[in-house]
Amino acid sequence: MYGGFKTLDGRHPWREVCADGYVDYRARKRAGGKVAYFNFDLAREMELIPANHSRRMTRELERVILDTFALQIINEYDIANGLDLSDESVLPNTFMATRYLQAQHKDKRGLNSGDGRAIWNGSIKTRRMTWDISSRGTGATILSPGAQIAKGPVKTG
Predict the structure, then answer these.
(1) What's the first-to-final CA gap in the chain, in angstroms?
(2) Residue 133 in 3-state DSSP?
(3) In this predicted structure, what is the pLDDT of residue 21?
């Protein structure tokens, strides 16, 4: 019933058109989450839930939302400090943090700036529209202002 959520696994067509436009990150599921709000109308429009789905959060729907979006990246700091990548919470695909120019960065070229704490979950193409889906607050990427100030990876948190 919620198959559309399963396609949001890090794959995104941007990878094929701009190889230098992102940095890849492995991610892991975060435990203990709870859905505070869900836009049922938007989810129907995106075809993530059936058109006749009730406006009620079910246990199954909450689980698939959390499995899709309750993520934390495994960044360069984590790898340098020996994070166990064999843990069952680590997802198989990578997620991208996109590069783009941010005025507060010194290089002013966008090489080291972009999604500072965000990753792209993927995209959804419906009959009427294509949606790019991202998660914010997933952990400090190397593109974050803090990493540029520190001149290297920073710990998430």
Answers:
(1) 35
(2) strand
(3) 93
Per DSSP, the residues of 19-86 read TTSEEEEEEEEPSS-------HHHHHHTTSS-TT--SS--HHHHHHHHHHH-EEEE-HHHHHTT--TT
* Residue 113 · residue 148 · CB < 8 Å: yes
Q: What is the pTM of this model?
A: 0.90
Whose tokens are 């890849």? That residue is 24
Phi/psi for 155 (5° steps) reads: -70, 140
pLDDT of residue 76: 97
What pLDDT, on the 0 to 100 scale, is given for residue 114?
87
Written as one letter, the residue type at 118 is A
Name the strand (E) or helix (H) holding 118: strand 118-125
d(CA 156, CA 75): 8
